Target: Reverse transcriptase
Amino acid sequence: MALLSPSVSALKKLVGMCERYAVTHGLKYNEKKSELMLFRAGNKTYPFEQEIELNGAPLQRVNKFKYLGHWVTPDLSDNLDIERERRSLAVRCNMLARRFAGCTKEVKVTFFKAYCQSFYTCSLWVNYTKRAYSDLRVQYNNAFRALMGLRRFCSASGMLAEARVDSFQAIMRSRCLSMWRRMRCGSNGILNALADRWDSPMLARWIRLHAVKLTAF
Model:
C-alpha cells in the first residue's frame, strides 16, 4: 500500500492510523520493507529533517520506489519507468528470437503481439524526455526486425504494415485512449473528476498523441 500526504504532520497521522489498525487486527507492518520518499514542488526543494517512524523505527528515505510495477521518482519523471520497459522489451525479444528462430512468419508475428506489445503502465507516462521515448520506439522496431530476421535499417513502417502489426505510435494512442475512456466512463468519482480537468497532464498527452500538425506553404 502507499500513503500520500501534503504535509509531514498529516503523514504521521496516517502512519499512526495504520499502526493502530494493524494492532487491532493482529497484524504488523514490516518497517524494514517500508520506505519514505519526498516529492519535489516544481524546481523548489525544502529541507526535511524530521523522521517518520513505523513501529518505533525510522523509515528509510529513498529517491525512487516501484509501486505495482511502475517506477516513481521525486520529480514525477517517467524516464526511469520507460527505461524499465525498454530493457524488459529487449530481454523478451532476444528470448523469442533465440528460441523460435525456426518458426514460420505467422507464428513469430503471433509471439511478437503477445509478448512485445504490452508496454505495462504506458498510459500513465506524461513526463518524459524525447530521447527516452524515442529509445523505446527504436527498441520496439529493432525487436521486430530481430525476431523476423530483417535487415537492421529496413523501413519500420513498411515492415509493420506488411505484417499487419501495430506501430509503436498506434499502440501508444490506443493505450492512452483506453485509459482515458475508463477514467471518464467508470463509476469512481475521483477518477471522473481527474478526467474532467482540462489542465490534466494525461489529457495533454492524449491531445499530443492524436493531434495532427499542419504546415502551411
Q: What stands out?
A: Strands lie at 35-36, 53-54, 57-58, 60-61, 65-67, 70-72. Residues 79-99 form the longest helix (21 residues). The longest strand covers residues 65-67.
